[in-house]
Amino acid sequence: MTSVLWFRRDLRLRDHPALHEAAKDGPVVALFVLDPKLLKPAGAARVAFMYRTLRALDADLHEHGGSLIVRRGDPANAVPEVVRAAGASSVHVSADFGPYGTQRDDAVEKALADDVSFVRTGSPYAIAPGRVVKGDGEPFKVYTPYYRAWKEHGYRAPASTITSRVEWHTSLDSIDIPADPPEAKKIELPDPGEDAALKTWRAYRKKSLSGYDKQRDRPDLDATSRMSVYLKWGCIHPRTMLADLGPGDETYRKELAWREFYATVLSNWPESAREYFLPQMAKMEYARPNTKAFTAWQEGKTGFPIVDAGMRQLLAQGWMHNRVRMIVASFLTKDLHIEWQHGARHFMQHLVDGDLASNNHGWQWTAGTGTDAAPYFRVFNPVTQGQKYDPSGDYVRRWVPELAGIEGKAVHEPWDLDEQPRGYPERIVDHKEERRVALERYQQTRD
Prior knowledge:
This protein is mostly helical. It folds into three domains: about 5-125, HUPs (Rossmann fold), CATH 3.40.50; about 125-160 and about 195-270, Serine Threonine Protein Phosphatase 5, Tetratricopeptide repeat (Alpha Horseshoe); about 280-445, Orthogonal Bundle (DNA Cyclobutane Dipyrimidine Photolyase, subunit A, domain 3). The chain is about 45% helix and about 5% strand. The chain is built from 19 helices and five strands. The chain has a five-stranded parallel beta sheet with strand order 3-2-1-4-5, sandwiched between helices. Strand 1, helix 1 and strand 2 (about 30-35) form a beta-alpha-beta unit. Helix 14 crosses helix 16 and helix 15 (about 340-350) runs antiparallel to helix 16 (about 355-365). The radius of gyration is 23 Å and the shape is globular.
């Protein structure tokens, strides 16, 4: 009996439980559906990387006698059409726990004929949302006890590779994978696909993993793994990475668990993707986002070097170092007093690794409005943050060429120089004053 393996956020052939289940029945149709509802809000970086990864997956399938069948449209229509054309008896997927993914899968399952089963096997996570709960059965809202329970629960070893034993069904019509959006030509994207993910992970393990604990907050050292984009698209499963970690890699293990914690939070409180997890924080006074200040933040022209470096890196690479993500998020929400949703939306439009759960809950953490939120009175000082985590100024000089001639830490306070750097904007706000305003507005929500 023929089965359909519907790829989504699992664009790989190794460590793929849903592929195991699909292959048990007989020939497998490898399907990907270009869903307009997901393509429309995604920016050029994410769309281009997805297309490139689909091409890589198709090439991998061809090596094993298969091919990727690509369709466009509402999955509730496209998937049943492929099922009928192939005479398939089942559709296999990696379970999706996001708000839209859950609704979409329910709609597809309902649209299938009564004699066609919809089988969810595995997920994009080492431990799927809903499996780790508190003693009373309620979901966790705080990361630290979640992590203890997550670690105690444990996770399976990577699934075996079975590609050489799979019989692929390839005789269906398929549209061409589209060309990259023109805007993506200016963006420096990582190599796509499963082989690139494994190569990047192996190189990082060998060269930098041992120093992750001490160097992860240093954007100037480029000491993080850059694996978030491969996890976002399922080019590698977190189980594969966790299997390679030893007792000394606890900090990295915790970062993988943060991703799973946020996915769990979103699964249990889907409204938190757009609304305040702490409703009382919505009562604060905020500025309108359609201001010159918001545009300056988006373009990396705020006059604060570490903020501008991060925002320009985002536009150039579709990625930003995590420490800098926190700095620029704090600046938007607490120096410019703009609600976190606007910043989160801008990130999702430009990030190649844009993941709704991690991105939006990371923004809520920094804004002081979410789970495990940083206390609202923790306002990142962009100058001292830059001096601490980019002590030689190399990160700023790389992304802000107007400051390339300033040596050392002085690059973080160009306004103190005798001669102002040509072409670099003046500070758009007084950080000390805006911090005072932010704390005053916060206190009003507590009165």
